[in-house]
Amino acid sequence: MALKGRIVSFRRGRHTIRHNQVIIAFETIDSKEKASQLQQKTVVFKTKAKTLEGVVTATHGSKGLVRVVFNQGLSPRCIGEQVFLE
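Now predict its structure.
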């Protein structure tokens, strides 16, 4: 069974937004320790046209969020959409 998550935001700074890096919150992950076990796992984002794969690179904060890097930039419409961890 795949772990489900939602795209929360792009990774961004004060002046830049990185469209190929996103912050994801998974349903059952609620601590930094659990999130650190997901590093180097593959995340799949499916649209009607294509399937994009990204890799979990780091944790984000202390509430279990993770940072995922995709090879291709994502559309701003993807915020709030569902992703799956393989």
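The first helix runs from residue 32 to 36.
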